[in-house]
Structures are given as structure tokens and as C-alpha cells.
Amino acid sequence: MASLTISYTGLRTRDDSGLIATGEARPLLSWHPVGARAYTVEAAADAAFDEVIASLTTERTFDVPLPGPALASREVRWWRVRAVGEEEWSEPCRVEAALLEAGDWTARPVTVPAAPDAVPLLRREFALPQGILSARLYVTALGLHQTWINGALVSEDLLEPGWTEYRDRLLYATYDVTGLLAEGRNAIGAAVADGWYRGPLGWFGRSAWYGDRTALLAQLEVETVDGCVVVGTDETWRGGTGAVASAGLYAGCTTDLRNEPRGWREPGFDDRDWAAATTLDLPAGLEHRSMPAVRAVRTWPVEVVADGRLRLDTGQNLAGYLRVTATGPAGAEITVRHAEVLDDQGELHTAPLRSAASVDRYTLDGGRAVLEPVFTFHGFRYAEITADPEVRIDGVEAVAISSDLRRTGRFSCSDERVNRLYDNVIWSQMDNFVSIPTDCPQRDERLGWTGDIQVFAPTACRNSDARSFLRNWLRDLAIAQYPDGKMPHVVPDILGDLGDWGSGSTGWGDAAVGVPWALYEAYGDLETLRDQYASMRAWVDWGASRLDADRVWSAGFHFGDWLDPGAPSGDPARAAVPTPFTATAYLSHSARLLARIAGLLGRAEDADHYGALGDAIADAAWKHLGNKAIETQTGCAMALRFRIAPDDERHAVGERLAALVRARGGRIGTGFLGTPLILHALTETGHHEEAYLLLMNERCPGWLHQVGQGATTVWERWDAIGEDGRIHGGDMDGGGPMLSFNHYAYGAVADWLYATVAGLSPAAPGWSAVSFAPVPGGGLTWASAEMDTPIGRAAIRWETGDGSFSAEVEVPPGATATVTLPPGDWSSLRLNGRTLQIAPVLDLGPGVHRIALSSSRS
């Protein structure tokens, strides 16, 4: 009997870099299920599968190992999949290994002397014979690089190779450059800037955190009919300087087009006056990039308004830069300044930038030029262009950059204010996912704060395929962790020399456990749990060693419920909820999560130990601090969500939380740690009206207050702009202003928008089971959400009318689902056109289903 035609989709490896090669010797494969009980995966040395290497049969469709032995460096293998019992295979997929061993590198990093701040240029010419078959460029830098072959950029990737714990780990990329090469003379060239490696980081004004010399490491391997030609960085390379006089992540870029050597990227350029390069030792920890690169992800034209100066509003707070097209004589100058907001005089409000100048400067070489900065980015919505009188600005574009993660989640509803809030969350994630998860994209900080991503990771994993991005960061987190288990506040760690202030805060260090757990829930990612297990356990053990005799964590510095709206303006750590409670509760939560993880990994003894530890710490938190904690919104939410409150007291705590919300008229009273918990806590205790009261509140503090003030991203402070329109001073005791209009921590609200307003959540890790549990409220008449899950599309759209509710839900292939009926006095239920008895929960299989409810009064 003929096989049915099956469409196999979602075929991919765990490597999400988009590069031609992978650094994983044993790639993990995934595809969307097609309803089969088992699948056969076959691997071969050729696309026709004439030379099959190995095959395996599996019931899994996620993180299945590539059949056969581990890949060797440069090896190409093909794989395909089919359901057991079927004849038709998927389309073949190709996987190629990068350079997997240090011994594969014959090139060495090269550096040249350059003027202070100048961006050096490096080049080398070489000859190729006839018969070019393929070419790979393996490239990275100590600093940031752009690389060209024969005048063409090898990639549109930005800020390569990104930011890692450079002393232990440096990423490189593999590019297919076959089409850029020619028989005969060729040239390869690169510009190398300070970036995170040598440029200033943080608010200290300190530079050269990792080294005092930038360098390029490049190895070009060209396969020809006569063999392999290798061109690597060595002492035969030469270096000079060009148009870019300086480029700093915080300062901006200064470019004088008159100084650009004509044709330096192409063959035939006379570089005899350039300096000879010197080589450095091969850096430790070379590792192939497995996550998406930073790229220009959105571009749009911006109108320039001339009122004596050239001003513009991009309409969106973003991380990126302006692309300016201008015409003018040689020597004419153009300056571009940036800010997130305007002050009450309509001027750029730059005080929150602190020492980050965020200024791009250009000098024209005569004629028309397209100007854009390199090796930098700015956090801004507004800009001002100052130009010499003889310059004509022909056009301006806004360019938003981000690590180019694939969007997976979408939400919308009947209230445009809530939609704007959701969009603000998406933009804040994009703007702060630039190589690492940062706190803000504009001031002299832009650091990988552990607390911010700890609270936001579940939301990030709904919005985007964040798995490889966060896995990459977690590798650095484990490297940066102290030998005794203490966690730095930021990763990569540049605060370690600040003593106790620079490390060891609960809610922040708990990213060691919380972020891997978020990846497991979103993607079923057991591999990350295994990889990070030692780091998780070390953090929990260190926390346990800090407990008092009564098992309360009262010692040391903690950020606590950072920036709760009741904290003193200059001391955001003095939250309403007692910090010993949040510290103790968080350690209990992490210990209990660690117990669950240990059980998943087959570590039964650890599971028992950490489960008992977590329970004992929770009991201590409740006994010694519970009464005072539940006088605050965060304390109640944490007691409920972290199961600190005993079961027989949960109802009373839920009632207390609802009363606190009502007493404030829906104004929120939580900071970084409490905000992700409070709406979920209200929902799970049945206080839906109070949850919507918080969401829909337009007064300060509240999410819709920000929207009402024109926010296009999520703010760091609830009152960054007050109800009277005044900008917060950002004052910090003993320091400069701390004010950002682009932080994603409070954007964790989007997790609740997906799960409760729309009603879409995973009911099992990796979405193998789906929960549809919408709770209409807040005057909303419809809401929808969709998710491109690891096994396919899950979606819901519901509408309400006068005594009626209808929904269309989609369950991915191979998944099961439950639908929890929304609260209401329902008298009639129809499922896919059939009338059913009313039941609080419906069980569904894959496919699209339609639900209609009505009450006796409809």
C-alpha cells in the first residue's frame, strides 16, 4: 500500500547561529512531530544517502543525537527523518563541523600599533589557483571586527564576536565565503575596535578589562581541485589606520572619511608604508558561536524637523543608531547626539547617560555619503543632528539592532493600551538582548545583570526562541561563579573587585537555577540542566552556608525587592518587604527547584537533600518573618508563589494580597522581585478582579501609567516620568543618576498576559502538553496568543459577549491539551459543533478546536 504524503517541518539542530558550521561534535536534532509513535533518523556522508553512516529509532523529536560517531573537524554529514512504518523521508539536512580542536588553528592573532582610540586596519593579499570548490573563513577578534574579502563584507553580523568571559572563552564564527573569492589575486582585510575587550565598561571609567591590545584571528581555508590553500593571520599581514578615528560602545563613533585609504580592502593596494603585524598566543577557550548574531533587525525612515537645528523622533525607543545620508564639501562636519526622552524645554535629556557620550561625528570627503557608526550602538528615541551650513541632509533612517532571535510568541487583545504595553515588552527585550541579556542599552552600564534576566527569562522564552542565547550566557555565568559558589551580580563579571557589594545577592544569584529551569519549561531542555547542575548546586550550597542558626538569611548585601515604588529614591534596596524575607524565600525556592532538577537527572540523594533543605528554609521564613512580610504586596506574592505560606494559610494570604491591591486603588507596590509574581499570585488564589485592577491601573505606579506617558519600552523606575510629566532625577545616594527608560524586568508582566489574559501556557516541559485557561476581565472583549513551540504551533483566540464565550484553540501535533473553562455561570457547552455536558476541564488532542459557552441569561 502506498505511503501517505507526510510534511516534515521544523528540522533543525540545537545550534541556532545560522552559520555554515557548528561547534558541536555531537549535534542534537529536532523536528516537529507528525503524530507517529516513533521515528527513524538516518545519517550519511552524502546528500543522496548512498553512503549511510548510522541510523537510530527514537520516540523523541527533540534533542535527538545525530547518528554515528562524533563529527571530526570540517566533516560534513547529512541527516533525514521519517516516521516508523512510513516510506517517505524528510528533505535531507546538512550539518558541518567547524574547527573543533585547538590544533586545527594554524593562524595566530595579529595586532599592529595604532594611535590611541584609533581603529586599526589589517590586510593580506594572496593568490588562488583555478578550480575553487569551496571556502570557509574562521574568524574572531580580541575586540570587535568587521572583515572583508575583495572589498565585500563577509557578513552583516554586528559587534562580532560578542561579549563573553574572554579570559576563558572566546567565540568565533564560520562563514561560507566561496562566492567572494576569485582565481588569481585576492585580498582579505579587517577593522578591529576595542569593544567590550578593551573599551571602558561600567560606570568606573576603567578600560582594558581583558587586555591592552586588540587583535584579529582569521583562518581562510580554500578547497580547490588541486588541494587546500590556507591563509591565516600571521606576521605577513600589515596594518594601518583609516577613517574611523575612534569607536566606543559608550562614547560613539568618530569618522573622517578623508582618511580612508582608497582600495585597501581590494587586491593591488600599496601597503608598503603600513606596519608589519605581530602575533600573539592563541587565546584560551576558542568556541564556535552557537547563538544568533547581533544584526540590524528593523530599519525605518525618520522625518527630520528643522527649527534652527535638525531634530528627529524615531517614534520608538531602541538600541541601534541612525543612518544619515548627507551631501557636502570635503571637511564639512556632522554630529549626531542621542537621548531617550526630551526635557520640559524640548531638549535632549542626556543626564541619565552619565559618562556615555553617545555621540557620532562625521567629516565628509566631498560629495554624497551614507553615514553610519561602526562598533557602537546607542539607546535612544530622539536625536539631534548638527551640521555645517553647507551640508544637506538627504535622508535619515533608524536602525534597530539586536541578537537576531526568532520570534515565537505573539499576544494581542481588544485594549490598545495593553497591546502597547506588550509591544513595549518586546522592544525592551530586543534592545537588551545584544550579545548578552543586559539591563539597559543607553548609559555607561549595559551589563549582564543576573537579577534582571532571572525574573524575565520565562517571558523571554515565550517571546522568542531564547534557548541558545541564554545557554551561551549561562556558560559564562558558571565561569564567573566564585569557587565557593557565590554568584557575581553581572555576567560577564566586571564587578568582582568591589568586594561583597559585587556578588552574592539573592534574586540575582538565583539566576543560576532560575534561568536553566526556564529553558527546561519552555523547551524541555534537559541538556542545559545537566550542563549547569554543578553551578546550581554550588549556589544553593553557598546560600545555605550563609543562613543564621534559625535558617534565616539576614547577613550580607542583597538588592532585595529592588526599586519597589515605596523605597527611598536614592536607596532602591530599602524595599517595603523585609530583605531577609526575600533572601530566605528565594533560597528556599531555588533549593526546591534544584531538588526537582536532581530528580529529573536521576540524582535521588540530591533530590531528597535539597527538597528537605528548601522546605526547612521555607518554614523558617514563614515562622520568623511571615507576619511582617505579608503586610506588603511582594511578601504576599512571594509567600504564595514560592509556597512559603503553609497550605492552610494560603487562602488568608491571598485575601490579604487582594486587600492590599484594593487599598492602593490598583497601584502596584512591587519591585524587581515581586512584580513577576504578583499577578500570578492573585490569579491562582482566585482574585481575578484585583489582578485586572493592577493591570488596568493608569495611575503611577503602574504599567499603563507608563503607556499613558508615551512609553515605547519598559522603564527601570515606575515613576521615571511622574503623573505631572516631570522626569525623575534618578538620584542615587553617593552616586550619579540611575534612570533608564528601557529595562525589561517589569516587562515580566507579559508572561501573565500570555498565560491568563489569553490563557496559553505549557502544561509540560517543551509544550508536549498545553494548557488553555483564559480568564477574561478588565473590560476586554477578546484576546489572542500564539506560540511557535518546539513541536509546532499552539494558539488561542477568545471572544466574550452578553453571557457568551467562544474560543478557537490549536493544539500542536503530538501534544495533548486541557481547556479550563473561564469563570462563569455556564449552562451550555459546544465543542466543535457538538453539545456536551458542562465540565470544568476539557481534554483535547492535536488540531484546531472550537468552543462555545453560553449562560442562561444570554
From TrEMBL:
Keywords: Hydrolase. Residues 406-757 form the Alpha-L-rhamnosidase six-hairpin glycosidase domain. Residues 132-297 form the Bacterial alpha-L-rhamnosidase N-terminal domain. Its EC number is 3.2.1.40. Residues 759-825 form the Alpha-L-rhamnosidase C-terminal domain. It holds the Pfam family Ig_Rha78A_N. Residues 306-390 form the Alpha-L-rhamnosidase concanavalin-like domain. The keyword Transport does not apply. GO terms for biological process: carbohydrate metabolic process. GO terms for molecular function: alpha-L-rhamnosidase activity. InterPro entries: 6-hairpin_glycosidase_sf, 6hp_glycosidase-like_sf, Alpha_rhamnosid, Bac_rhamnosid6H, Bac_rhamnosid_C, Bac_rhamnosid_N, Ig-like_fold, Rhamnosid_concanavalin. It catalyses: Hydrolysis of terminal non-reducing alpha-L-rhamnose residues in alpha-L-rhamnosides. This is alpha-L-rhamnosidase. It comes from Glycomyces terrestris.
